[in-house]
Design brief:
Blueprint lengths: L1 E4 L5 H11 L6 H8 L4 E8 L2 E11 L2 E9 L8 H15 L4 E7 L3 H10 L2 E6 L9 E7 L4
Parallel strand pairs: 4-5
Antiparallel strand pairs: 1-2, 2-3, 3-4, 5-7, 6-7
Length: about 150
């Protein structure tokens, strides 16, 4: 198993992961455009020559934001999400970030449990952020605290 930088040849596979894992999947165009932006970091998790997960984060100055982290349903609850989050923290440190922020659907209890296990702290909520009455929880992680 390896975590490596995402390349253009991975975009179609990552778009399929998006469709499986998110209510509002990013398109191939969105993935392609943001992959070209140097402020974004994408990495894929490869197991037995298959991409089974990925993340997208953005770092600007001393702040990183985790936009996406996903693992295919068949590979969940095996620690792969944790591996991806640990890589996010590593990259944020390397880039000099002091904070990492993210938002998560209030109903996504497994993601919330993972973020809290790592040390993310809930600091706010956005009512009806995702539409349909679903709230977003806002989390932060202080790099200096690790």
């Amino acid at each position: 198993m390896i975590i490596r930088k995402m390349t253009n040849s991975d975009i179609e596979t990552v778009a399929q992961i998006e469709k499986e894992c998110f209510v509002d999947p990013w398109s191939v165009d969105t993935l392609s455009q943001s992959l070209e932006n140097e402020c974004y970091d994408y990495a894929v998790l490869v197991f037995n020559d298959e991409i089974i997960g990925y993340f997208c984060m953005h770092t600007l100055f001393d702040t990183s934001e985790l936009f996406r982290v996903a693992v295919l349903n068949a590979y969940r609850r095996k620690g792969y999400g944790l591996l991806l989050i640990e890589k996010v923290l590593e990259i944020a440190r390397e880039k000099g970030a002091e904070h990492i922020f993210l938002e998560v659907r209030a109903k996504n209890l497994s993601a919330i449990a993972l973020y809290e296990k790592v040390g993310f702290i809930k600091y706010g909520e956005r009512a009806n952020y995702y539409g349909g009455g679903e709230d977003a929880y806002l989390y932060s992680f202080e790099i200096g605290g690790v």
